[in-house]
Design brief:
The complex is a heterodimer of chains A (541) and B (421).
Chain A: H1 2-16, E1 40-44, H2 46-49, H3 58-61, H4 65-73, E2 104-107, E3 112-115, E4 133-135, H5 162-165, H6 175-181, E5 186-190, H7 193-201, H8 217-220, H9 236-251, E6 256-260, H10 269-272, H11 281-285, H12 290-303, E7 322-324, H13 332-349, H14 357-369, H15 371-378, E8 381-383, E9 389-390, E10 424-425, H16 427-450, E11 454-456, H17 458-467, E12 469-470, E13 476-477, H18 502-519, E14 537-538
Parallel strand pairs in A: 1-4, 1-5, 2-14, 5-6, 6-11
Antiparallel strand pairs in A: 2-3, 7-8, 9-10, 12-13
Helix pairs in contact in A: 4-18, 7-16, 9-16, 13-14, 13-15
Chain B: H1 2-8, H2 29-33, H3 47-50, E1 62-69, E2 71-79, E3 84-92, E4 95-104, E5 107-122, E6 135-151, E7 155-173, E8 181-182, E9 185-186, E10 188-207, E11 213-220, E12 223-235, E13 250-258, E14 261-269, E15 274-283, E16 290-296, E17 302-309, E18 315-325, E19 330-339, E20 357-367, E21 372-383, E22 386-390, E23 394-395, E24 398-399, E25 402-420
Antiparallel strand pairs in B: 1-4, 1-25, 2-3, 2-25, 4-5, 5-6, 6-7, 7-10, 8-9, 10-11, 10-12, 11-14, 12-13, 13-16, 14-15, 15-18, 16-17, 18-19, 19-20, 20-21, 21-25, 22-25, 23-24
Classes of the chains: A alpha/beta (541), B mainly beta (421).
Chain lengths: 541, 421
């Protein structure tokens, strides 16, 4: 009897005792340092809003870098962190009803990128509230100060932004005004991407029509943003002025913060996935019209004084595409004039015994009948070089043979039809982008210095992705686009090729945390990107 | 007595890892109370395990010992770089049963049944280390018939075969990447194998140069538990990966080594009432280089393998114990030991989160009458807080270390009976 009691007592004591205790609790050393995170506000564009896979979606938004930062801030006195509501995204499809498509996924059954099946349920119903995350997709720097940017009536006129319409406090509110309602003690500012990169560059330097060149206002000197086209490059003086104003407003109440620089085109898979020479010799040789195409290039090489080179299908090297470069001097007339002369030479010098006689005569007639068209088509055409960047969406048009290719062989984009302005960021356009980016970043850094703000150099961090960014876990990430489920864990960018995926946002958050820890002497824990999702793959769609 | 027996007849051998690696050094209530010394101690039938050669020196013709422990083990984990916290609490029930029979002056036979290996560790499903382990339950029961032969006045040898039977159930997530998950629950694999059997042996000698001094040596052979055609089942496989060959349910083969052990020690009778003992164990853990699992095709060929480096090293344990016979009714015991962990730096996997430890033991025997006694023991195992990691996990061709700070604590009360005549 006694023994039974002793035994039971020991069991009870056993469970209660032997509690292991650490010398220091896991959060013993966390601190906010010199910063105060009690009210944290983030301003910026789509990168700040948690945009990925071509849209903002309910789940995707939870992985925005401001939300990930706020989770760490909460450990050291951070206050509540709110983001515009996406409760209406009941099925997590993203998109906006009537305006944009659903979020991109990989459909495993066809091994391709598709918008996920279903219709968006997100509407523009106004929430009329100031939030901690004031990231507005597509916003350029000056848009943050534009009254009425959240007015539904202005959307059709291009004066308002549907994303801001969803949460602007009034029809005349400004993004920065709403941000200040939160009385920020700490802020992050990552604006400027849409002033050059996510508008001009992603459009291949073209206006909305895909052909007319967008304007670089560093060349025009225009500083009235109301006169800007959607894809124009913002003048860098206007940018500096705007940015100074934004920072002055944000720091008015003594808030501290982090500013982020603008990345360069070469660190984003949207520009680096499609090589300038994507067409293999095999693909060309398999084309039924290859005889015609070869002769065409031979003619063009002659007619353009070698601006276009003849096709080389035997060197084992992949071939460049033919593009329209708006900065070239037009030689349409020259081509149209030479066409009939070249054709007649063929007719006069080819003996009837030539085994290729029929083909050559057909081609000569083709040149005579299409002389004008050829001039118009190839007046500013050249082959792409390693200095040009083909945008990601171009992969769905290059070499895609329209149904009537036999009847109209000049219709094949990139092979016979020069690719329109919007598919290519030419070397010249690239330089404009690089110069504008450098100017903006110089402004960002100097303005930050005047206010002693921390700078998260996203430009240099994302440049490291080109050769491989090694993070604390030893994992090496690159700017590669998704290429299969076996390497999915290495991909930081979402399927739109521009915005990071959740894992990528975790890496960005960590870089900002490191900057905060260094600059404000805080001690904040990091996120571990390996545990974050990347590309969404579905079995069927 | 019956009540006691039914109370102590707890579960089967679902023991908990606490002594170096997954070795559970609880093979007798009397000896555990003495720091688990015993290679040169002749107290009871428990000597059938510690050194079968010692059976020849038991006074009584028939000796019987039976006992069990409730092993409470808790481990906490934290990583302040990522603000991770996790913990695991486990209860194990090692038991032992010994019987010896003195056939004649120089020949004694015995039977030992005990549970020297066990590991039951259960973390929260999908915790941060889930790609290494979610839960593991492995156990082995050894059945060891033995003989002891007395050679002259001062010397004896003993030994016998060991029949081992064991089982393992192990679950881990197949990857860190949440790509392989369903609704937040990671794709995981459960390996299950039961009724694994193997053979080994134990052999040793005991030398008593005087009435006060005993010297003993015992060697237990390595036993490799070969799991063949166990079940491998995958759960929470996402739809897009439903036909992936390496995620299909199948059978598996795997070998788990139970290392050889060499023990040498001595005991000294300071007075008639007071005994002191010292044991040195050496466990040849270096045989455990990796946990390799071969997943099989239906025709028995290997479909794919999972190779997980462990690289254990040989390790030592130093034990001191003492026993004081106070009177006819009570005998008191105390002990201490230092247990070196076989886990090397950089190979600290959370399925056996054990670093070096120090054991403090105590206990007593209450003699009901000349034949029957009740033994009590308790063990407290102290671990220093340790920072360590497992650096050999690879995903996407990259090595992803997993580590942090671990702190463990183990406490085990035990009870047994000794009967002899």
């Amino acid at each position: 009897m006694k023994n039974k009691f002793i035994y039971l007592a020991i069991v009870a004591v056993g469970f209660a005792s032997c509690e292991p205790e650490f010398d220091n609790a896991v959060d013993a050393n966390y601190s906010s340092g010199e910063a105060d995170f009690s009210s944290y506000v983030a301003i910026g564009n789509s990168l700040t809003a948690g945009y990925m896979d071509g849209t903002v979606s309910r789940v995707g938004q939870t992985y925005s870098y401001p939300n990930l930062l706020a989770q760490q801030f909460a450990l050291v006195g951070g206050g509540a962190f709110t983001q515009p509501s996406y409760e209406d995204d009941v099925n997590n499809l993203g998109g906006i009803q009537g305006l944009t498509g659903t979020r991109l996924v990989i459909n495993a059954s066809v091994n391709g990128v598709q918008p996920i099946a279903g219709s968006p349920t997100i509407t523009l119903a106004p929430q009329a509230m100031a939030y901690n995350n004031m990231g507005v997709p597509s916003a350029k720097s000056f848009h943050l100060r534009l009254p009425g940017y959240g007015n539904l009536a202005g959307v059709a006129l291009g004066l308002a932004n549907p994303y801001f319409v969803r949460h602007a406090t009034t029809t005349t509110a400004t993004v920065i005004g709403d941000a200040m309602i939160k009385n920020p003690t700490f802020f992050t500012n990552w604006i400027g991407g849409n002033d050059v990169l996510l508008s001009y560059a992603t459009s291949g330097g073209a206006k909305a029509d895909g052909m007319t060149p967008a304007v670089d206002h560093n060349a025009t000197g225009f500083i009235n943003p109301l006169a800007y086209g959607g894809n124009d490059i913002t003048n860098s003086d206007l940018f500096e002025d705007t940015y100074t104003n934004l920072i002055n407003t944000l720091t008015n109440g003594g808030a501290k913060g982090v500013v982020c620089t603008i990345p360069s085109v070469t660190s984003i898979p949207y520009f680096t996935t499609i090589p300038y020479n994507p067409v293999s010799d095999q693909a060309l040789t398999a084309n039924p019209n290859i005889g015609l195409i070869t002769s065409l290039y031979q003619f063009l090489s002659d007619a353009t004084n070698s601006r276009i080179a003849p096709l080389n299908l035997t060197d084992g090297q992949p071939n460049p595409v033919i593009i329209n470069d708006v900065d070239l001097v037009s030689i349409s007339n020259q081509i149209s004039n030479i066409a009939p002369i070249y054709a007649n030479t063929i007719i006069n010098t080819t003996p009837t015994t030539d085994p290729q006689y029929a083909l050559k005569i057909t081609f000569a007639n083709f040149l005579i009948n299409n002389a004008n068209t050829l001039g118009v088509l190839y007046g500013k055409a050249r082959q792409s070089t390693s200095s040009d960047l083909l945008v990601l969406p171009s992969r769905s048009v290059i070499g895609v043979d329209p149904a009537d290719s036999a009847a109209n062989p000049l219709d094949v984009p990139g092979i016979t039809e020069p690719m329109a302005n919007k598919w290519v960021l030419t070397a010249t356009e690239k330089t404009k982008v690089a110069n504008a980016t450098a100017a903006y970043n110089a402004s960002i850094r100097s303005i930050a210095a005047t206010k002693n703000l921390a700078v998260a150099d996203m430009n240099s961090i994302m440049t490291q992705l080109v050769s491989g960014l090694r993070i604390e876990t030893g994992q090496v990430y690159t700017a590669n686009y998704f290429s299969g489920s076996t390497t999915e864990g290495l991909v930081l960018f979402s399927l739109d090729g521009v915005h990071p995926n959740a894992r990528g946002y975790a890496v960005i958050t960590n870089e900002i945390i490191k900057v905060i820890n260094a600059h404000y002497k805080s001690n904040l824990p990091l996120h571990n990107p390996s545990y974050f999702p990347g590309i969404n793959i579905v079995g069927s769609n | 007595m019956r009540k006691l027996l039914s109370l102590t007849l707890l579960a089967l051998a679902g023991s908990t890892a606490f002594a170096g690696g997954y070795r559970v050094s609880i093979q007798g209530q009397k000896q555990l109370a003495m720091g688990h010394t015993g290679v040169a101690v002749v107290n009871s039938a428990e000597v059938a395990f510690f050194n079968p050669a010692g059976m020849a020196y038991l006074d009584k013709k028939f000796n019987f010992s039976f006992g069990g422990n409730a092993l409470f083990a808790k481990t906490k984990f934290q990583n302040s770089q990522y603000n991770w916290q996790a913990s695991t609490e486990n209860l194990g029930t090692p038991f032992s049963l010994y019987a010896t029979y003195k056939v004649n002056k120089w020949f004694t036979a015995g039977l030992a049944v005990y549970t020297p290996y066990g590991s039951s560790v259960e973390w929260d499903q999908d915790w941060q280390g889930a790609h290494l382990v979610n839960n593991i339950d492995l156990s082995a029961i050894f059945v060891q018939p033995s003989v002891s032969i007395r050679v002259g006045e001062h010397f004896s040898v003993g030994g016998g075969p060991i029949f081992a039977t064991g089982s393992v159930n192990f679950n881990r997530n197949v990857a860190i990447n949440p790509l392989l998950s369903v609704n937040g629950s990671g794709t995981d694999v459960t390996l299950d194998a039961k009724g694994i059997t193997a053979w080994g042996y134990t052999a040793g000698f005991m030398f008593n140069p005087s009435k006060k001094l005993r010297i003993g040596m015992n060697y237990r052979s390595e036993i490799i538990m070969e799991a063949r055609d166990g079940d491998a089942n995958f759960n929470d496989v996402p739809a897009f990966a439903s036909t992936t060959p390496t995620l299909q349910n199948t059978t598996f083969n795997s070998d788990l080594p139970l290392p050889a052990e060499l023990t040498v020690g001595l005991s000294y009778k300071i007075t008639d009432k007071w005994l002191f003992a010292f044991d040195y164990n050496r466990a040849m853990w270096s045989v455990y280089k990796a946990l390799n699992v071969d997943f099989l095709n239906s025709d028995g060929t290997i479909r794919n393998s999972s190779n997980n480096a462990r690289n254990y090293k040989n390790s030592s344990t130093y034990r001191l114990g003492t026993q004081y016979v106070a009177n006819d009714k009570f005998t008191f015991r105390a002990g201490w030991y230092f247990d070196e962990s076989p886990v090397q730096d950089g190979y600290f996997a959370p399925e056996t989160p054990r670093n070096d430890s120090m054991g403090y033991t105590g206990g007593l025997t209450y003699k009901v009458n000349s034949k029957l006694g009740v033994d009590f023991s308790f063990l407290y195992l102290h671990f220093d807080e340790v920072d360590n990691s497992y650096n050999h996990y690879q995903e996407n061709g990259n090595t992803l270390p997993f580590g942090g700070t671990y702190k463990s604590s183990v406490f085990s009360p035990g009870i047994g009976i000794t009967y002899g005549f």
